[in-house]
Design brief:
Elements (H helix, E strand, L loop, with lengths): L10 H13 L4 E9 L1 H14 L5 H15 L5 E4 L3 E4 L5 E8 L5 E8 L7 H13 L8 H11 L3 H12 L2 H8 L2 E5 L18 E15 L2 E15 L5 H16 L22
Parallel strand pairs: 4-6, 6-7
Antiparallel strand pairs: 1-8, 2-3, 4-5, 7-8
Length: 277
């Protein structure tokens, strides 16, 4: 017996490998942050119990992220040639969404949520629900699929040169992958733990696991839920001090459940709330 099995390395995995090899040459700095999400998760459960609507935790973080970036848009700037930067007005977030095919098979696809800084939490969540409920169809048109099939037949150095050309143009990055990336690896496992991404975006926020730990609240020790969150910046564009300030601001918005109503609030309309300042 051979004691092993040889499987085909798919073209989709080849695409991932090529893009990651190009992206790994960025000078990336990472911030590993623990965020107390006890109150935010409690409020989300209360909203779901009251309205019957599912509110994605990832959407809640995206809403906080849109607010944080709107206050410091340099964290989503991109190189435009050697001597210029382009800073987009809108916060366009690309993330992975789990959805089902017509046959009921679960697949994960990338989707760009446009202008999350200018939309309500409810609108973003409705878009998320629509994507998850609609049967998954092929992302590429037949003509695009033919192009990528031909690209996969080329030698590796040619394919990687092609992706370097693509990722050197910020307008192509914006069109294909938004201005910032959110990846939620915590939804595939249990317990705490950080993720360190390799992506071409200037800013990537990685939602790791959520663990229960003792916390001190008003001088008392009580169990709290902590999110392991990673903020990753292109160090060619964002220095350490602005990166630290941005991470602290994002942590503050999440811990103060930005965009969610206070538990004791009355007179709120049914459904998800609009933004709060």
């Amino acid at each position: 017996m051979k004691g092993y099995e040889i499987k085909h390395f798919s073209r989709s995995r080849q695409f991932v490998a090529d893009t990651l090899q190009v992206a790994e040459h960025k000078h990336v700095i990472h911030g590993l942050v623990e965020v107390d999400v006890t109150e935010a998760r409690t409020l989300i459960r209360q909203i779901e119990a009251r309205t019957g609507e599912h509110l994605s935790f990832t959407v809640f973080v995206m809403n906080c992220l849109g607010k944080a970036i709107s206050e410091d848009k340099m964290v989503q700037a991109y190189r435009l040639g050697r001597k210029r930067l382009i800073v987009y007005d809108d916060v366009d977030v690309v993330t992975l969404v789990e959805c089902a095919t017509a046959e009921g098979e679960k697949v994960v696809r990338g989707h760009v949520f446009r202008a999350v800084d200018k939309r309500t939490l409810q609108a973003i969540n409705q878009e998320m629900q629509a994507i998850q409920s609609e049967p998954y169809t092929k992302v590429w048109s037949p003509r695009q699929q033919q192009f990528f099939d031909l690209l996969s037949l080329l030698p590796g150095f040619v394919r990687r040169f092609f992706w370097r050309v693509v990722f050197s143009n910020p307008h192509r990055i914006h069109q294909l992958g938004g201005t910032v990336c959110v990846t939620s690896i915590g939804m595939f496992g249990e317990g705490g733990g950080w993720g360190i991404p390799v992506v071409p975006n200037t800013l990537t926020v990685t939602l790791g696991g959520i663990s229960t730990k003792p916390g001190i609240i008003d001088g008392r020790v009580e169990p709290r839920e902590y999110l392991s969150l990673t903020t990753s910046f292109d160090h060619d564009i964002v220095d350490g001090a602005p990166a630290a300030r941005f991470s602290a601001r994002l942590k503050h918005l999440i811990e103060n459940h930005y965009g969610l109503p206070e538990p004791e609030c009355s007179g709120q309309p049914e459904g998800l709330p609009s933004r709060q300042q």
